[in-house]
Each structure stands twice: as structure tokens, then as C-alpha cells.
Amino acid sequence: MKPLETVYWLRLGLGIAAALICMGYGLAVNGISRTDFPFTTLMNSMSLAILTYLGSYFVIKRRFLTKVEKTTKLFTTGIGIYFISWIVFWVLIYTALAV
Question: How far, CA to CA in Å, does 61 sit from each of 16, 57, 70?
Fold first, then answer.
């Protein structure tokens, strides 16, 4: 597999992992309610997802720096799939636990 393909699939997995991290944090701080969804839960989860993405950039940059032509490609590759997978799995897990 090419290095950027590997980065893409890593970001997909990290999006799912970030959703689990956000859900664990949400359970620890606020709990889950079927009737009440605090706005702070969404903002905290978004912040954790962004921090996880930025942290993954530095780890991936260290690993794949010599294997790609442009280092900016390491930042942008997989950004869409990361946030899409994060939001889909975060909503899915939240909905499953709220029932």
C-alpha cells in the first residue's frame, strides 16, 4: 500500500477511536439523557475530535515524513473521512446508549 493510502485508512480508524473517546468523556462528565442534550457535550466532543486529529498529524508526520513528496499532504489526506467517521460513529453510539 502507498503511504498516503495508509494515512487515509489510519484516519478512518482514528475517527472511530475519537468517537469512542468522546463518548467515554461524555459519559464521565455529563451522562446520557434521552430528553436533554447539552450543547457543551457537542462542543467538548468536537474539541476532543480536533485535538485527536492534530495529535495524529504529528505522529503520522514523524512516521511518513520521508515517504511522501509534500508534508502538507500528510495533513490533508483523510481529513474528510476522519470527521465523517467521527460524527457518524459518535451519533450512532450516543443514540444507542440513550435508548
Answer: 20, 6, 11
